[in-house]
Amino acid sequence: AVLFDLDGTLIDTAGHIVESLRYALETHLDYSPSDAVLVSGIGTPLYEQMVTHGSAGLGHDAPAATVQKLHDTYIEHNRSTHDERVAAFAHVPATVQALHEQGVILAIVTSKPNGFARRGLRITGLESYFPLVIGFDDVAIPKPDPTPVRDALSFFELAPEQALFIGDSPHDIHAGNGAGVATGAAGWGPFDPVVLRASKPTYWFDDIRAILELVR
Question: Is the pTM of this model over 0.70?
Answer without folding.
Answer: yes
